[in-house]
Amino acid sequence: MHKYVIERDIPGAGGLSAEKLQGISQKSCGVLKELGPQIQWVESYVTDDKIYCVYIAANEELVREHAKRGGFPANRISQVRTIIDPTTAG
Amino acid sequence: MDLLRGNEIDPCAAREAETKFTEALGSMKSDFNQERRELLKSTCTLVGATALVSMGGSLSAFAAGKASAAEGATPATQAPRMGLHKFVIERDIHGAGGFSAEKLQGISQKSCGVLKELGPQIQWVESYVTDDKIYCVYIAANEELVREHAKRGGFPANRISQVRTIIDPTTAG
User: Would you say domain A2-83 falls under CATH 3.10.620.30?
Assistant: First the structure.
C-alpha cells in the first residue's frame, strides 16, 4: 500500500455547506465500499478552490477509479515518498 | 461557704453557691468556645497555608511557563496568540521524492531554524514529500508569515491555501 496526495480543483469548495460536504463524503465512502479495502480515504483539506486529499491505496489506478466512479476531479495524483515534520530535524 | 447551718440550708449561702456555680459553668463554656475558636482558627490557617503553598506552586509554574515562552519570542511575536489558521502550501521542488534522508534532515533543520526566528505564530505540522512537489501543512496566524518563512528559508511557496475545513470518512456520518 502507498500513500497519495490528490489535488482536486473544485471552485468554491471552501464555501460548501456542511450538508454538501457530508453528501460528498457519503458518495466517496460509497465508492470506496465498492472498491474494497485496497483503497482508503485518510483525510482531505478543503481550501477555497481546491481539495487536497490523502489516500492510502495499492496503486494510482485505484485512486483514479475512485475519482471516476464518484465524479470527483483528480487533477494531480502524487505518491508520497516520505513524510517529514519538525522531528525530522533531529 | 457553709450551705448547712445545723440542719437548715442557708438561703443566702445557697444563692451565692448557685451564682458561683453558674459563673463557673459560664466560664467553662466560654473557655470551651474560646478553645473551639482557637482550634478552628488554626485549622483555617493550616488549610489556608496549604492552599497558599499549592497556589504558590501553580504561580511559580505559571511564571516559569511565561518566562520560558518569553525566552524564544522575538518582538514581532509577543502579541497574544489568537486567530491561528491551517494552511496547505505547494512547493514545487524537482526531484524531492529522491532526496536522501540527510538532505531532508538539512531542509527540516533550515525550516525549524527560521520558525524559531519567527516565533510561535507559525508552526510546521507535517509535509508530504512527492516526486516533484512537497505539500506542507502549517498552522499560522496569517499567510504573510507562511510567505516570510518560505522567503527566509529559501523554499518555494507556489501556492498557499487556507484550510477552511478538514473532512474524512467520519464526515459521511
Answer: no
ipTM: 0.97
Question: Residue A56 corresponds to which cell in the numbers above?
Answer: 492510502
Whole-number Å distance between alpha carbons of B134 and A78: 10
Q: Output the pTM of the full model.
A: 0.70
pLDDT in tens, B116-140: 999 999 999 999 999 999 999 999 9
Number of helices (H), then strands (E), in chain B: 3, 6
Q: Does A11 touch chain B (CB under 8 A)?
A: no
Q: Is-contact B122 B75, C-beta < 8 A?
A: no
Tell me yes or no: is domain B77-172 CATH 3.30.70.3090.
yes
A22–B166 CB contact, under 8 Å: no
Are A86 and B124 a contacting pair at CB < 8 A? Answer: yes
- Residue A26, Cα to own-chain centre: how many angstroms? 13
Show residues of chain B in contact with A47, CB under 8 Å. Answer: 88, 161-164
Q: Which residue has the cell 514581532?
A: B76
Domain boundaries, chain A: 2-83
CA neighbor of A80 nearest in space, from A20, A26, A2, A17: A2
**Nearest CA of chain A to the CA of B149: how many Å?**
14
